[in-house]
């Protein structure tokens, strides 16, 4: 049996930080600002240890830097962790988020069971509800470790990690508490999305993904329907069915419907469509062996959709949403679909297969058609679609394509709000022309140039009648190197915060 991952819990308190008996007390420090009264008091308690660190240059409070101090019983906490915020003029929500992830990351590395984070800068006009939400999300992000199959571990870590935000103003504490409740829901959901993505293909395959969806749906009063391979065949979902044809574990389409109690803000449901290729070998067009093991994370879009559905149900957002997850394994076998095959998709459009490793668009086109048939007028698909998007944008941003500028603007705002960045790339006629077929309606691959745009153009052919956006999150499956300062390797669960922010903004 896999072991329990670290259970993270975040709360808030008005307390005297000198009396907090915790394994670690953390404080953020600006590099060019005067110390707060609390930081000065702490420095005195520690006989000037903080001042000495600054004087000798061991801690300059640069953004992302950190240092531990041992208290030797001078305060109740065993250790003090100082984390740099950088220059105050460069302060922003993303630096603040990263600093709090860093705090949790370093505390868990130290195998701390309890952590207190002192919010000692009370800037006028600060939005403490938002601060509470951000810190809770960040702590879950930085504290996450994927080790459920590690049976032997030196100096084993704790099963629980308790984090307390501390502020000296009761009004602020009340606002922080409200934000933390939301941030905890989102943080836990994002971390479970990470766990799903990190699980190998022999543990998480299409039917097991469907089983997880059923459990989450039942726990949150979400309707869940799963189409197996026989139902997919009856419905003539030739994209999804053919991609999964060579695998022992057959494909599934998972449909989740969230209907709020009371009146919803939208009459027609918003659709979230996720690509969930639980393992992508490339099929007959086999990928290189190097790093193929990472293709267990080709279901990141599906995980983001599933866990976003859980979040909106827990937050009771007044919005109708349908989540559609297209789950399959893409494997080579005697029964696999082949380059040169012509497939008939659920929409009736035909596709000539030029590359079996361009499979994501083939499963998604059936999901997009399903969304239309469920009367969704706004459709967002989320997929680790193309390596070309990583070449274009690196691992720092996801690609955004859309046939509706207002929808694109809303997603850009949600990306900024959630610190899950996107960059809009062109969806234009010249790219559409390149995926038009000669012996079928479409072909699943165009030239090597602008391949991310061609992939989006292919998907756009199935959603002409609706407002649609495509998020190519291939570059955001795992951390950029700079992120490894405050989170562990493996999935980062990208998309949960972004989609949640988008849907939250829709009802504000």
What order do the helices and strands come in, and which of them pair?
Blueprint: E1 7-13, E2 24-30, H1 37-45, H2 49-56, E3 66-70, E4 79-86, H3 93-109, E5 114-118, H4 128-143, E6 160-166, H5 170-198, H6 206-219, E7 223-227, H7 229-234, H8 238-243, E8 252-258, E9 270-280, H9 300-315, E10 321-330, E11 342-344, E12 350-352, H10 360-373, E13 378-383, H11 387-393, E14 398-402, H12 405-418, E15 422-424, H13 429-434, E16 442-443, H14 451-460, E17 467-472, H15 496-507
Parallel strand pairs: 1-6, 2-4, 2-5, 5-6, 9-10, 9-13, 12-16, 13-17, 14-15
Antiparallel strand pairs: 3-4, 7-8, 8-10, 11-12, 14-17
Describe the structure.
- It is built from 15 helices and 17 strands.
- The longest helix has 29 residues, at 170-198.
- It has an 8-stranded mixed sheet with strand order 7-8-10-9-13-17-14-15, sandwiched between helices. It has a 6-stranded mixed sheet with strand order 1-6-5-2-4-3.
- It has 2 domains: 7-170, Leucine Aminopeptidase, subunit E, domain 1 (3-Layer(aba) Sandwich), CATH 3.40.220; 196-507, Zn peptidases (Aminopeptidase, 3-Layer(aba) Sandwich).
- Helix content is 36%, strand content 20%.
- The chain has helices at 37-45, 49-56, 93-109, 128-143, 170-198, 206-219, 229-234, 238-243, 300-315, 360-373, 387-393, 405-418, 429-434, 451-460, 496-507, and strands at 7-13, 24-30, 66-70, 79-86, 114-118, 160-166, 223-227, 252-258, 270-280, 321-330, 342-344, 350-352, 378-383, 398-402, 422-424, 442-443, 467-472.
């Amino acid at each position: 049996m896999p072991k329990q991952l670290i259970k993270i819990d975040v709360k808030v308190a008005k307390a005297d930080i000198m009396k907090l008996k915790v394994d670690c007390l953390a404080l953020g420090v600006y590099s060019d600002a005067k110390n707060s009264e609390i930081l000065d008091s702490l420095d005195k308690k520690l006989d000037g240890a903080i001042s000495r660190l600054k004087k000798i240059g061991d801690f300059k409070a640069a953004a992302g830097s950190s240092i531990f101090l041992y208290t030797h019983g001078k305060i109740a906490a065993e250790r003090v962790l100082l984390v740099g915020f950088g220059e105050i003029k460069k302060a922003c929500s993303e630096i603040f988020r990263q600093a709090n992830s860093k705090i949790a990351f370093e505390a868990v590395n130290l195998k701390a069971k309890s952590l207190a984070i002192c919010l000692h800068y009370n800037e006028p006009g600060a939005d403490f509800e938002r601060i509470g939400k951000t810190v809770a999300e960040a702590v879950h992000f930085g504290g996450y470790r994927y080790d459920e199959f590690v049976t032997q571990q030196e100096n084993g870590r704790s099963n629980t990690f308790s984090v307390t935000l501390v502020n000296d103003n009761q009004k602020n504490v009340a606002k922080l508490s409200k934000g933390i409740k939301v941030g905890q829901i989102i943080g836990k959901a994002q971390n479970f999305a990470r766990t799903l993505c990190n699980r190998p293909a022999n543990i998480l395959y299409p039917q097991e993904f469907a089983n997880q969806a059923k459990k989450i749906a039942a726990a949150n009063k979400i309707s869940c329907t799963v189409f197996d391979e026989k139902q997919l065949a009856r419905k003539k979902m030739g994209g999804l069915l053919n991609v999964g044809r060579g695998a022992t574990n057959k494909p599934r389409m998972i449909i989740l419907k969230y209907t709020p109690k009371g009146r919803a803000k939208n009459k027609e449901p918003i659709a979230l469509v996720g690509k969930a290729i639980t393992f992508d070998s490339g099929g007959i067009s086999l990928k290189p062996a190097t790093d193929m093991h990472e293709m267990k994370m080709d279901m990141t879009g599906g995980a983001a959709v599933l866990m976003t559905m859980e979040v909106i149900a827990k937050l009771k957002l007044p919005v109708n949403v349908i989540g559609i997850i297209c789950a399959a394994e893409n494997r080579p076998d005697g029964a696999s679909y082949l380059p040169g095959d012509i497939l008939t998709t659920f929409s009736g459009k035909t596709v000539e297969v030029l590359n079996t490793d361009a499979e994501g668009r083939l499963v998604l086109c059936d999901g997009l058609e399903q969304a239309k048939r469920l009367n969704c007028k706004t459709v967002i698909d989320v997929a680790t679609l193309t390596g070309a998007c990583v070449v274009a944008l690196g691992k720092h941003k996801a690609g955004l394509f859309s046939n509706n500028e207002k929808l694109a603007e809303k997603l850009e705002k949600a990306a900024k709000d959630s610190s899950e960045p996107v960059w809009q790339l062109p969806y234009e006629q010249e790219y559409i022309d390149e995926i038009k077929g000669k012996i079928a309606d479409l072909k699943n691959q165009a030239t090597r140039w602008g391949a991310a745009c061609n992939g989006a153009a292919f998907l756009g052919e199935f959603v002409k009648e609706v407002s649609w956006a495509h998020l190519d999150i291939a570059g955001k499956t795992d951390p950029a190197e700079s992120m490894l300062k405050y989170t562990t390797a493996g999935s980062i669960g990208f998309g949960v915060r972004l989609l949640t922010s988008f849907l939250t903004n829709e009802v504000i």
